[in-house]
Amino acid sequence: MDNLVPVLSRLMSNASALRPVVNWLILGCIMIACMVAIGGITRLTGSGLSITEWKPIIGAVPPLNEAQWQEAFDKYKQIPEYTLVNQHMTLGDFKGIYFWEFLHRNWGRLMGLVFIVPFLWFWRKGLLKGWLMKRGITILIGGGLVGALGWFMVASGLEDDPDVSHYRLAIHLCAAFTVFCIVLWTVFDINRERRAFRGDGTSAAKWSRWILVLVLLQIVYGAFTAGLDAGRIYNTWPLMNGEFMPENVTAFNSLWKDFTDHKDGVQFIHRNFAWVVFAAITWFGYSNRRNMALKGGDRLLFFAVMLQFTLGVLTLVTQVWLPLGILHQLGALLLLATLLNVLHRTGRILPAQGVREAGDVLADAVGHRGQ
Question: What pLDDT sits at residue 117?
């Protein structure tokens, strides 16, 4: 047994050494969640087009005097949102919407520093090696891509249309959610056995991955609903102003146009597909109520979808009251996180490379000793 001491010491040392990396990644998840909330406020307050230029460095400094504020306001006056919607706006009103877009962009810059600086530090200390190094690089590239997609979204509302493209908004939001998932999956990989996204062959693995498809589709339609401002119509539940499907839902007589580019049809899909997601997760939780491998993940998933469903209904009937709209958006992130927990627990175990291989090493060593 003497030869086990250095092995266990080394493994315990690895666990302690990687704890700062885990804390860094968890902080990243929290900051992404805050970014989602700030982005939601920016959208719901109509602030997203208030800054009409993308200046990654000098854009971090706001207007510092009245002349600079007027210059920024004059640039805003040249875009369709002002000429078609906000001609009544004063400089004081403009400063109010400028604040949220400015905070949104600078929170992104702060996130860049929070991800890049510790990454370089951990790399220098030798804590990021192999798969963890590759994962870190992927996260950095993904974060930069989310920022670029944000400007891609904003640019769609600066020339011909007073609103940003809801397609681009969906791409931007889904990219942010994807980075969040990669960061959280990395936390799971460090704290548990490393697992592939591919399922381990169990029914729980199979059906949880189908549920992911449903949740992602619902998130996309949530983004469409937000981008088209479709949550402010048909503010009754469970029927749409007394009807299951009002005639106007299919006004364009085109499946694509009606259900992806028309606010009535988009809301119809989003509100009714919520029942499908809720039913699928409820069924999954009931079917796996005795599945000890999930370690309660099925119950967390059920509570998350129940909360999100309730927030969705309340957001609708209040005509998207801002606090509820933000909570509903964060609820989608929470639902995705709880589902990711289930996916990781049912993923195929990869060759042990992390801290959690200690038990296997100890068992093998004891076995050899016994022989």
Answer: 97
pLDDT of residue 14: 59
Contact in structure between 100 and 42 (CB atoms under 8 Å): yes
Cα 205 vs. chain centroid, distance in angstroms? 22
Beta bridge pairs of residue 347: 199
For residue 238, give the 3-state DSSP assignment. Answer: coil
- pTM confidence score: 0.91
Residue pLDDT, tens place only, 215-245: 999 999 999 999 999 999 999 999 999 999 9
CB within 8 Å of 87: residues ≥ 6 apart: none
The pLDDT of 118-142, averaged and rounded, is: 96
Helical H segments across the chain, by residue range: 4-44, 66-76, 80, 91-124, 130-155, 166-191, 203-227, 255-260, 263-287, 297-317, 322-345, 358-370
Q: Shortest CA distance to 288 belongs to which of 169, 205, 195?
A: 205
Tens digits of residue pLDDT in 149-197: 999 999 999 988 899 999 999 999 999 999 999 999 999 999 998 999 9
Place of tokens 């009754």: 236
Neighbours of 200 (CB within 10 A): 15
Q: Residue 148 in contact with residue 370, Cβ under 8 Å?
A: no
- Written as one letter, the residue type at 66 is E
Whether omega for the bond prior to residue 238 falls within 30 degrees of 0, making it cis, is yes
The contacts of residue 334 (CB under 8 Å, 6+ apart) are 304, 307, 308
State both tokens at 217. 């589709």
Give the list of residues 6+ apart from residue 170 with CB closer than 8 angstroms, or none. Answer: 220, 223, 224, 227
Q: List the beta bridge partners of residue 349.
A: 195
Cα 3 to its chain centre, rounded Å, is: 46
DSSP string for 54-99: --TTGGGSPP-SHHHHHHHHHHHTTSHIIIII-TT--HHHHHHHHH
